[in-house]
Structure formats: C-alpha cells, structure tokens
Amino acid sequence: MTAATSSVSAPTVAVKQKQTEVLRITGAIIFLLSGIYHVDWWRLVQDPIVVPLSMYTEGAKLTVAYLTALLAWRIDPMSCWDETDFKALRIIYSLIAVADTCFIAQQPDAGILVFMIVQGLFIKRHLSGMTSISELTAQSPLVILVFGISAVLCAANATFFWYPRTGGFNDLFIILSIYFCLKCTSLTATYAACLIGKFPLWNAQMTAVGMTMFFICDHTVTGNLLLSQDPTTTDAPFYVVTSSLTWMFYGPALLLLSLSGYHPDILLVLAPNHQIDASSATKKKE
C-alpha cells in the first residue's frame, strides 16, 4: 500500500514543483516587462520628449531575453511534450540571448546573422515530420493566406525601405532579403504545424501567437528607422511609439514561445481552475 501511494504521489509532487518554478520565472519576466513598458511609454509625457532608451530598459530587456532562455533550458524530459522539441528550443533560445546581447552591444550586423539562424531553426522545428507543403496548403487555405500576407509585407519592407537605405543591391541588402524570406517561411511553417495538430492545443496557440508577434516586432523596427530620433523634430513622438511597440510584441513573443515547449499539464499552473493530470506530464516520448 505504501509503495503504491509513493508511485502515484511522486509524479504529482514533481509536477507541482515544476509548475512553481515556471510560475516564478514567468512572474519575474512579466514584472520586468511591465517596468519596461512603463518607462518606454513614459517618454511620451516628458517635456521635451525623451527619445533615447534608459539604461534600465536596456538592461531589463536583456534580462528578459536571458530569463526566457532559462525558461527554455528548464524544460526536461519530465516536463516537456516532446523530447526533440525541448532540445531544439534550448538551442534556439541560447542563440536569441546571443543575438540580443549583440544588439545591446551595438553590433546589429552580428545580431541579424544570429537571428537568421534562429529563424532557420524555428522553421526546422515547425516543419519536422511533415510530408509535403502542397498537401498542407490544400488542407487549409489559411496557410496560403498567411504566406501571402507575410510575403507582401516582407517584399514591401525590403523594396521600399531597405533597398534605398542600404544603398542598393549590396551584401547588407542581400542578408536582409534572406532574413525576410526566412521570416515569411517561418511564420507560414508555424501556422502549418499548428493547423495539422503537430502541437498540443495550448502549445499550438502559444506558438502561433508568439511567432505572429515575433513577425510584427521585426516590422516595428523598420518603423523606428524611418523616423528621426531627434527630440526637437515632429517625428519624435512617433519614434517613441514605434520603438515602444517593438517590445510590446517581442517580449510576449519570447515568453510564449519558451512556454510552448512545456507539457500542457505543466502549463495548467497559468490557469489554476483546470484539473491537473499529473501522470501525463511525466510521460516520455519514445
């Protein structure tokens, strides 16, 4: 009787411990994001408008990137929905931390190159195990719609903004064009994977919303560069808005995508009214 009780209660304790850990890290990330949003948007009500980002927000944003990487690294065989998936997320989030460090260190070219690898790994994560793209698009017109919208946005961004800004058809423009192609493919692959049921429902929703916000975030960066950072110009308020919007999308994207690697039973800590099935959370994929 005692042995039987231990075999049932042990997984429950392990699940609750992991849920507590996830909740604490998630809470810390949300706390930091709330501070970032407050300081970023507070610039609008200053007289004159304060355009440069504060040292707090720069440090807090990098800390969020590191904490989401920690969240990804804390996924293990007992708390994942798929062992291959959580290993992929560990690599992806390690690279995201490196890329964000490059941007904070004023090395945007290196950051873009690392993010290209990140997008390629997201594509691999979402397309692995699929049969053919034509079969997937036939099953859901939404995949074609997502591809069409993302392709138009990326093409317009590259043609009307980055081409003249980079001085024409050169190495930087080629790199950015490749990145736009990767972004478009990555978003399409995300919706294809979610629609065919590759992910559990909660994980699919987190992945789809997270990758969509990631995609939008990249386009707000273009808006930042279109506008003047000079606080004496009429562009200053709009620059503050677009630069603030970047992390309004990017921060939640990082959080959602890192959480998407956890088993749904672990994620139930974010919705405490649901019933917890401890046994399924300890299941390993063969």
Order of helices and strands: HHHHHHHHHHH
Total of DSSP H or I helical runs spanning 4+ residues:
11
Enumerate the spans where pLDDT stays under 50 for 5 or more consecutive residues. 1-10, 275-286
* N- and C-termini, Cα separation: 30 Å
Count of domains: 1
Strand content: under 5%
C-alpha geometry: globular
Give the total of beta strands. Answer: 0
| Average predicted confidence as pLDDT | 81
Q: Give the helix/strand class.
A: mainly alpha
What share of residues is helical? over 70%
Largest sheet: none
**What does the radius of gyration come to?**
21 Å
Describe the structure.
By secondary structure, the protein is mainly α. It has one domain. It is built from eleven helices and no strands. It has helices at residues 2-42, 55-73, 83-104, 108-127, 133-139, 141-165, 171-195, 201-226, 236-259, 264-267, 278-281. Helix 2 (55-73) packs antiparallel against helix 3, helix 2 (55-73) runs parallel beside helix 9 (236-259) and helix 5 crosses helix 6. The protein is globular. The model is unreliable at 1-10 and 275-286 (pLDDT under 50). The chain crosses the membrane at residues 22-39, 59-76, 142-162, 174-196, 208-226, 238-257. Keywords: Membrane, Transmembrane, Transmembrane helix. This is Inherit from bactNOG: Membrane.
SSE order and pairing:
Layout: H1 2-42, H2 55-73, H3 83-104, H4 108-127, H5 133-139, H6 141-165, H7 171-195, H8 201-226, H9 236-259, H10 264-267, H11 278-281
Protein name: Inherit from bactNOG: Membrane
Transmembrane segments: 22-39, 59-76, 142-162, 174-196, 208-226, 238-257
Keywords: Membrane, Transmembrane, Transmembrane helix
